[in-house]
Amino acid sequence: MSSAHRGSHSTERVHVVDALRALALLGILSVNIWFFAHPQMLLGLRGDSVETSADQLVRFGSSLIFEGKSYVIFSFLFGLSFVLAWGRAHQSGASERRRSLRRFSALILLGLLHGLFLFAGDILLAYGVLGFILLGMRRVSARAALITAAVLYAALVGFLLFLGVISWAVGDALDGTTMMGDPAAAREAFTGPAAQWLGFQLGVYPLVQISVLFGQGPLALAVFLLGLVVGRARLIERIAAGELSTGRLLGMGLPALAAGLVLSTMAALLAWGPPGSTDHHPGMGGELLGTALNLAAGPIQAFGYVVLLLVLFRSAVPLTRLLAPAGRMSLTNYLTQSVVMVILFAGVGFGLAGELSELAVGGTVLAIWAAQLVISHLWFARFARGPLEAPLRAWTYAGSRD
């Protein structure tokens, strides 16, 4: 048995993983919605200035709690699920490699469609491309996987910190607005007629995807590898089964969460100023340093989240049951979030970009996510798999024994 299969004996669905995905969906929505509410952000420009202390606290809180952390949890679960899927294929006698190739190819296609026609900041394309790298590294030792992950993390964070310090030192001599576009023009295009909106989408897509692939991509791959190691060791199942004591888990999760929050607080202060500030302008150097600190905090804080949530789920089974259905159809829910946000904010819908306060945007996040929890429960009362999960599974399993 290869190292990719070692320890992956159970094919039962791990419901705490689905619950983690459901909460990660909340975080993804809390971060992505700002690119719809302030479409100039897709050009790398800052969103509109906040008008009240409540608005500033919403942005500050979104940065502190979710930014740079939610997609890390999704990436970790992607690597973990790769091990689970690999084990299921091995047990059924199917071609593990064939299934992976088909799944990652489908993610690339879905990512292209999502990125071009809904949200230029799509992550599925990157996951599909990086999935092929993960497939090639599936038999790497745990030690090599952890070293590779650490090198990717350190290189990315170090590079961004270097850029931020240099930009800070030169006093933001370059004007980001003149370099990258006009916020008002971006908003006008995004809220214009369908052809104008589509033109904006197609125009920003290459720029945004370069940022995703070479900015978020290395960190996502690093966390894929962490998920690979954890999946092989069956740590999630062992924690859910109570094999690791609560005291030991708290001893790991609480320090990680505290360290991550310190870095995230520094990042939020750079980006948004102290709580209550409504006139903070960090400049390009501050933005880059804040981004670097958020990336640095991401895996650390996400580790704290995951460990502490697993402790919570172990003693709060009703909470796991409440959240799990949304995580079971996370692909459907992720793409549906973009559909809803296009309808709300783009010109092909209600055209609310630039119109809602930050507080109203935060309320919209909670409303969408709560609706997804309810709809997911209703869906699984009648169907075995999510609307997009079913055809993706059929494509993945086509031509192989199950």
TrEMBL record:
Protein origin, superkingdom: Bacteria
Species this protein is from: Nesterenkonia alkaliphila
Domain DUF418 positions: 258-398
Transmembrane regions listed in the UniProt entry: 20-37, 70-87, 107-134, 146-170, 207-229, 249-272, 292-313, 334-353, 359-380
Record flagged with keyword Membrane: yes
Keywords for this protein: Membrane, Transmembrane, Transmembrane helix
Pfam family, any one: DUF418
Protein name in the entry: DUF418 domain-containing protein
Record has Magnesium as a keyword: no
